[in-house]
Amino acid sequence: MTIIYSKRRFPPPPYDAEVEDMLYFRLLYDGDHDLIFPRARSVQTTERIIRRSRPGFFRRGQKAEFKVSTEHQYVVVNFASLVAEVPADLINRSLGNVSADVETGPELDFVSGVVSSSKPNDKIWSAVTQHQVDGLIAYRIRRDGGGKVWFEWLLGDRYFPHEDGRGADLTWIEEWDNGQGAKDRFLRVERQELSGDDLTIQQLVYKMDSDNVGDQVDTQHYAADHGLDIPEDAELPGIGELLCGYVTNDESLLHPRGRSALRNIDTIQEEINWTITRDSIVFEKHGKPKLAIPRGLWDTVAQSNQANYGARFVRNADLEVVSYNENNGAVPLYITWDAKTKQSFEHVDRLIKYMLAVSKTSVQAAGLEDAKGDTGIALLYLWIQSVIKAEAIKDKFDGAIKDAIRKCMILENAIGAGGLKPVNPVIEWGDMLPKAESERDTEEVGKYTGGVQSLETTVRRMHPDWSEDAIAAEIQKIQDEKAVDTLNPTYTQPPKVTV
After folding, report:
1. Contacts for 145 with CB less than 8 Å, ≥ 6 apart
2. What is the mean pLDDT of residues 449-475?
3. Do the Cβ atoms of 393 and 128 come closer than 8 Å?
4. Which of 101, 230, 364, 373 has its CA 20 to 30 Å from the CA of residue 473?
5. Helix 384-415 to helix 106-118 angle, to the nearest 10 degrees?
6. Cα–Cα distance between 430 and 438 in angstroms, integer?
7. Is-contact 443 431, C-beta < 8 A?
8. Is residue 479 within 8 Å of residue 493, measured between CB atoms?
9. Statement: residue 498 has pLDDT above 50
């Protein structure tokens, strides 16, 4: 069953609620908490607080409707970003080489070309981070006129699967300057549908008015008007599957499209912000020393100002020089506030640990406790909670990358040169946590000598920054040296005999 867009609001139901949640958690991750937390507005008067990316500059694309309040700033200590980025850091460090599961053949060069064009190692961090924030990330297969094939990651709010499971829509909005100081909005849709084993891919365009979708427009006319290269509709027989997919986070029977990793920590994050903001307001109001003077001295100064200026008041400047009493000493006194902040800081510390526990993030990953280990195993046990979480996410991305590259081979067989065997590639994953080089080398050599790991894998893991040519040369050197060592330079002489 296809999705109807014309004469309806975008995004379409039932995905509108999911997209709204994604936008909420993106603001939480980016630190724009004054836009989502009610108590952030209670520290404002008539001014709106705008978080700045750097002093003196507003965030790009965001206009300040009011001046920034300098009297009471809402303080943001954004631990929510850490929750999303720790798994991305660990997986980014772990992802290694991606290659075809063959020694020779056209698959080897094709997979190498797909990996070179798709750049999974460069984009895995952003993909995992967005996956944690949105709870869903999608991908699709691309091929240009020159024959280059690759896959790309897409935001979760651009992927709308059909209810029957036989299709999906990839959507995005394009804006164009209409020459009258405004922008025209258009909804682009790439629709993939299966009919039996045949795959149909359509390119649709709709006119938009704000969030309302209007009539469908001709795709080729739209492409000509805006100088776009939009592929024509295509039917690929015998494909048997969609050339797109998605990766979910913490999916359940009630939430099959996944849930954000930040879903249970937003209220804790607000309480952290509010506690620190409240303390900063109190410090600002009561942290400065205040001058206390006797009533008689205040009346004297006030009467003098009454005679000179026509009103009773006392200024700080009026008391810079005061009289000295031989019995009481200097009459004015400064009152200083003895702040008791220990309990407040302990409360914030407890909230942070609650947040990390709920989000399955190790305290050591947040830098709140010592994360040093004498060995890699000791370090692993300190980070075990974050590593277990990252391992589960890694397994999902491992399957997604393999599926994406296999789908690239299917597309090449359908409209390209063909002759490829569409099988999953091999993805090498390394350790998520750093180890000393000596400890790592000892482990790799032990695996090789134990016969459970090949020489190529051993060299590749011991030298992850080497090129393919350097790895091949090192393997050849090792094999040549082993061949020389197997020769016996000692010649056995025949025994002496007496004739």
Report:
1. none
2. 84
3. yes
4. 101
5. 120
6. 16
7. no
8. no
9. yes
